[in-house]
Design goal:
This protein is of the alpha/beta class. It is 36% helix and 12% strand.
């Protein structure tokens, strides 16, 4: 199974021919990364994250795309650098929940965000699942578009919605990711995720994405599928 994870990581490092996407496992964010080693740090984060959950995760929560406040710097979907650095312990989210027996490292420059970047969606999703009593290794987070799409006019520290054409570049990776967790219940966060999964004939349960005012509905509905 480790080889399958390595194959997936190699796939992720091959960005599709799309403008204005950031590949956190290959690209260096020259303005914001702490060092040229940042992509390898993020790759190690994702590798350890997946290894802890393969053959165990019972729930697969799949969102839309990486965000600049989350996976762009952590390397893990719906997971912020601030969580990895231990600054969300007050909300019941610890670094070891994400990466057991592994010490994460920051990849953003501390002078930009001393405590690391913080993504609201990441805090909501992790906090909600942990409050429902799930073991952190019983669920795994992903996105139908695995890279970070950004707005050309706003720069790399921005988010944008991937187009239908762009989403198709993520299909092979999404399929290979799902093969790592054949017994997992798939919960799609938002219509883009749900429609993408349905387009490749993957059964899923749909809940509201917690972003853009959807936090309360997400919390109220996801519990029915756990």
């Amino acid at each position: 199974m480790k080889n399958n994870i390595e194959d997936l990581l190699l796939q992720l490092k091959q960005s599709p021919p799309i403008r204005n996407i950031f590949n956190p496992w290959r690209d260096v964010d020259v303005e914001n990364d702490i060092s040229p080693d940042a992509p390898e740090i993020r790759t190690n984060h994702l590798r350890r994250y997946l290894e802890a959950r393969v053959k165990r995760a019972r729930y697969l929560l799949i969102g839309e795309a990486l965000g600049y406040q989350g996976g762009h710097f952590s390397g893990i979907a719906m997971t912020s650098e601030r969580i990895l650095l231990g600054y969300k312990k007050g909300e019941g989210i610890n670094p070891e929940h994400v990466l057991p027996n592994f010490e994460p490292k920051r990849t953003s420059k501390p002078e930009i965000k001393p405590k690391g970047f913080s993504e609201p969606t990441a805090s909501i999703v992790w906090g909600t699942l942990l409050r429902h009593g799930l073991n952190p290794n019983d669920f795994v987070l992903w996105n139908v578009f695995p890279w970070h799409p950004f707005d050309q006019n706003k720069g790399v520290l921005s988010n944008r919605r991937p187009s239908e054409k762009e989403l198709k570049y993520g299909y092979p990776i999404l399929t290979n990711f799902l093969e790592l967790f054949p017994e997992g219940r798939i919960i799609a966060l938002g219509k883009i995720s749900a429609n993408t999964l349905k387009s490749i004939r993957i059964h899923c349960y749909e809940v509201r994405h917690p972003a853009n005012g959807g936090a309360r509905e997400f919390k109220n509905t996801v519990k029915f599928f756990l």
